[in-house]
Design a protein that fits this description.
By secondary structure, the protein is α+β, with helices and mostly antiparallel strands. The protein contains twelve helices and ten strands. A five-stranded antiparallel beta sheet has the order 2-1-5-4-3, with helices on both faces. Strands 7-8-6-9-10 form a five-stranded mixed beta sheet, with helices on both faces. Helix 10 packs across helix 11 (258-273). The protein is elongated and about 85 Å long.
Length: 331
């Protein structure tokens, strides 16, 4: 039997139902349309459910039940609001209540990102859209069709890619792109708030000799150990430690003056001088040192953030020319 023939038979059946039950033809047709929608929703891979004007579940398709963490049958009669995280609940309650008395106006709310309290206690991050169901289908009752789209996989992938894009693969510190972006942000904040902004450029002394003596694998492990020390020495999470390039590192210290930056640099120097490499198979006498250059922006000393980095770079080369394992401050 063709699909068209089947549809025709369904319509004839509805007409007979109207004649025998006394129900209006439009009511019987709405039931037929509603049933067809339910069949469609059940086969859809998105989470779809229908709620009444109080937010009570009237229908939940298999995917929505899976996302909410409960069976289809057990969800019927429960409220959508109890599954919404408290940060989203009031907004949706307000929306539903304020649409009760509005006539002849379509509700199209969302998609909005929400957190769902699943039945098992876990949190689901999702997009939620709500729309009026046409009165021709919903009959006298005011119903809303909701689409719930799982964002957890997309969010996890996005966050992973975001970390990869902003992080130096070898050391785990911020990469050069993140350094440049963050420096611009810190610079603007410093100028607006009239607070100091300090930068430290760090270069590993005689690193080529280390690589030539012990190999590039050990050299990479050396850089990883130095990066870990630098990260541990920065004074707050507002500060930034980055790999500047090769064996060079950068530290950005918002709201820190020259003296504060000097304390941080001395701490880095002491901790790196105390490092050993026995954990990577080298003799205990193997040591490493770094040279550091400091520059501080305060009261418009530098015109741009690039000028600040250049000043730190000049101070760094002065530290190296003074014998290495030194800290030089730009005046």
């Amino acid at each position: 039997m063709s699909k068209q023939t089947n549809n025709n038979n369904q319509i004839l059946s509805v007409i007979k139902q109207s004649a025998t039950t006394g129900k209006s033809l439009s009511t019987c047709l709405s039931h037929l349309q509603f049933g067809a929608l339910i069949e469609l929703f059940n086969d859809t891979s998105e989470g779809i459910f229908i709620i009444d004007e109080q937010g009570t579940f009237e229908f939940v398709n298999p995917m929505a039940a899976q996302l909410l963490g409960n069976s289809q049958q057990s969800l019927i009669g429960q409220s959508l609001l109890q599954f919404l995280h408290e940060t989203d609940r009031d907004k949706y309650m307000y929306t539903l209540l304020n649409w009760l008395d509005i006539k002849d106006t379509r509700l199209n709310f969302g998609p909005n990102e929400v957190k769902i309290n699943k039945a098992d206690g876990n949190i689901l991050e999702a997009d939620l859209s709500i729309s009026n169901m046409p009165e021709s289908i919903a009959s006298a009752q005011k119903l809303y069709v909701c689409i719930l789209h799982d964002l957890s996989i997309h969010k996890a992938t996005y966050n992973k890619l975001k970390v990869q894009a902003s992080t130096d693969h070898l050391t785990g510190l911020a990469n050069r792109f993140t350094l440049d972006e963050s420096l611009n942000k810190y610079w603007s904040e410093s100028i607006q708030s009239h607070q100091p902004l300090s930068s430290i450029l760090i270069d590993v002394d005689h690193f080529k000799k280390f690589n030539d003596s012990y190999g590039h694998i050990k050299g990479d492990k050396c850089l990883q150990k130095i990066a870990k020390v630098i990260l541990q020495c920065i004074p707050s999470r507002d500060c930034l430690a980055a790999r500047y390039g090769g064996e060079e590192f950068a530290v950005i210290l918002p709201r820190c003056n020259r003296d504060s930056a000097s304390v941080v640099a001395k701490h880095i120097q002491q901790q790196i001088n105390a490092m050993t490499f026995t954990d990577i198979g080298l003799p205990p006498e193997v040591k490493i040192s770094v040279s550091q250059g400091i520059a501080c922006e305060f009261n418009n000393q530098y015109r741009t953030c690039e000028a600040l980095i250049c000043a730190a770079d000049t101070a760094l080369y002065r530290a190296k020319s003074d014998g290495r394992n030194k800290i030089s401050i730009s005046i």
